[in-house]
Amino acid sequence: MRIVLEPRPVPLEPMRVGAPLIALALTIFVGSLLFIALGLNPLTTLRAYFIEPLSTSGGVSEWLLKASPLILIGLGLTVGFRANVWNIGAEGMFTMGAIAAGWLAVRFGGGGHAWLLPAMVVAGALGGIGWAAIPAFLKAKANANEILVTLMLNYVAALILSWLVNGPMKDPDGMNYPQSAPFEPSAMFPPLFEGLRINGSIFITAIAVVLAWLFLDRSFMGFQMSVGGAAPTAARYAGFSRSRAIWLGLLISGATAGLAGMMEAAGPLGQLTPVLSPGYGFTAIIVAFVGRLTPLGVVFGGLLLSLLYLGGESVQMSLNLPASLARTFQGMLLFFLLAADVLILYRVRIKRR
Amino acid sequence: MSMAPLLVPILSGTMVAATPLIYAAIGELVAERSGVLNLGVEGMMLIGTVTAFAVAFAGYPPVFAALAAAGAGALASLAFAFLALSLATNQYAAGLALTILGSGLSAFIGHDFGSSALKSIPKLHLPFLSDLPFIGPVLFHHDLMTYLALVVTGGIWWFLYRTKAGLVLRIVGESPESAHAIGYPVIRIRYLATMFGGAMAGLGGAYLALAYTPLWVENMTAGRGWIALALVVFAAWRPWRVMLGAWLFGGVTVLQLFAQGLGIEAPSELLSSLPYIATIIVLVAISRNPRTMRLNAPVSLARTFRPEG
User: Fold this and answer.
1) Which of B101, B112, B224 is the best residue to mutate to test the A interface, defined by the most A CB atoms within 10 Å of its own CB?
2) Where are the domains of chain B?
3) What ipTM was predicted for this assembly?
4) What CATH class is the domain B4-296?
5) Which fold has domain A66-318?
6) Distance between CA atoms of A295 and A313, rounded to whole angstroms?
């Protein structure tokens, strides 16, 4: 028995939307089998995972709060992925953005300056850009594989953060915990509603969605980058610069990841801690793929993967399941999505010999 | 203070730290030589680690644990191979999916281990050799898996350059179209090479659980799968150079540990980042020369191949 892929004369466009739905259905199916194997009722567990977290206003607030960084990072990665620039170092860029903004917050927080929060936004983006410039430079100048360089820099960024919160930036009044001093209100995004954690930073994400759409679908530069990814030879023939695509792909994703890190530090965290993100930088890769590398799709992708995180926390509390269940589901989702994507370009036939 | 008395533990520790890297990188080298780039090494190593830990923890002997880990690694690579080879999916994306899945799955399975510890597999005492001054404790005071890694390296060199099957594997990596035209089953060969890579990554992970740091910690591979991927590039896709590279990285890892132990005036976090920074430097050094890359990288690396009909 063997699988034969017959190319379709034209891509099956509805499947671009259908594939993520198929992947979600398969993930839920395999997840149910897993729940049964663990001796749980699959229906009540699925309810606890996907429905209950959204049944309160607090839950919806948490859902959007987690979706926001995922969408923001996913938008940046989309720009790179379209140009075949594989940034898997968003986690490190997120960290560096948070560090840059956090330094400003700790240094100038006491003054109650109105300029502080905007300055932190800029610093967050610059922190991510600076960290992304390393792999961009090494790729453009020395052809060093950006996948490996960005990944290695994730570990370096995490260690720099750990050093800072254990040393130079450690809160002197923090009972010896490895964390920075808590940010003053002037260094944090104001909450949108009384009693909920959702804050003004989601407007940054909303603006980024529009900007990403303008850049990717309405600008000549965005078009050049997409051609470079889809048909490198054609792009070279047309004279589209490869090195500019590398720089833009990495720096834009660095900016969004750094901003996301800044938003996390100046939002729900309110200080720098040794671990800032539950793997947003990696999950955003899945967000970009689920979102079909389109800005609007990334919004849906971010909402879905945020729900997977939230559900994981929910069943951790209600059913005492490990939080890593969420990561397992996220990995499965990407696996099934890549498999279902085959249906866009090919007809799949199973032949018996 | 003098470094001389430290030389033996540093060199001996280098061999140990290099072992998981050798397994994972040699396996990936074989896969890449067949034209398959599997970015899932980190995930497969983690699955190997948690499998070895689970089997050893249940009381089975280490040999079983290592074999089970190799099997689990191969099984995990099969999921990748199905996507990348049978369904012609982008190999980068499929490999990343495997790493994310492996990291989640291993943490999920390992959840119950808390931070339990295992007993390390024994170091072998070789008659005469282990008693040699200096050379004895450096080279001949290790466990079986450390020696096996060297045997595997030699075996893969022999296979690739001295057997017909190895030649066919290299042809598949250079020009799958030609191999297919002559009548070789390109996809099946790539499946086998990928699964070998998975089994070796599993063994590398098992070594962490059984010998190197026999204490369960989530994501305890700490990027070694990715370093192994970089090593393959550094080695210009040659087995012996993989081993040299692994020793180099093992050396950096051990040196920074000793430096931390000696209380050298540098923050421990910055010392810990040295292996990752070294990986980047080495990658840059080797990639800078476009000729090295063009002459050595398998031509069809990471390209999908779809046999007609």
Assistant:
1) B101
2) 4-296
3) 0.93
4) mainly alpha
5) ABC transporter involved in vitamin B12 uptake, BtuC (1.10.3470)
6) 27
